[in-house]
Automatic annotation (TrEMBL):
<dbReference type="InterPro" id="IPR007214">
    <property type="entry name" value="YbaK/aa-tRNA-synth-assoc-dom"/>
</dbReference>
<dbReference type="InterPro" id="IPR036754">
    <property type="entry name" value="YbaK/aa-tRNA-synt-asso_dom_sf"/>
</dbReference>
<feature type="domain" description="YbaK/aminoacyl-tRNA synthetase-associated">
    <location>
        <begin position="33"/>
        <end position="143"/>
    </location>
</feature>
<protein>
    <recommendedName>
        <fullName>YbaK/aminoacyl-tRNA synthetase-associated domain-containing protein</fullName>
    </recommendedName>
</protein>
<dbReference type="Pfam" id="PF04073">
    <property type="entry name" value="tRNA_edit"/>
</dbReference>
Amino acid sequence: MTISTRLDDYLHQQNIPFNVVPHPHSNSSIGTAINAQVPLNQIAKAVILLDHEDRKLMAVLPASNRISLSKLNDELMASYHLVKEEYIAEMFDDCDFGAIPPVGQAYNMSVVYDDKLEELDHVYIEAGDHESLIKLSKADFFRMMELARHARFSREVYH
């Protein structure tokens, strides 16, 4: 599999320029960073959440960080929890399991991003498979995120 169909369509419809960065197969963000020779903190990852009314939310944060659900719920005055992996596979059926592009807009999903991403010059995102990343300029990444909420809701766990 290559770039996710929905992601590719979305990027082209929004006229967002991007580069595909191929890398050897990897099943983890750390492995992807090493294989693609990209700093881990420059890879944005997606965490899929549900609230008590089954409303979906994609939280986007640096791959070097871990989400704090309590911080996020406090910031949004909500009660989100992690989605079960089987459900995620259904929601992202044009992606390999575990290679979710952090572009909720392409999947009709609300998005919140961590403010830590604003420190980057470039942002790399999963393309939908385990062998490619998409490289975006900071401006283009945040153009995609212009309707998303943002807050500081993660903490660094890998340096």
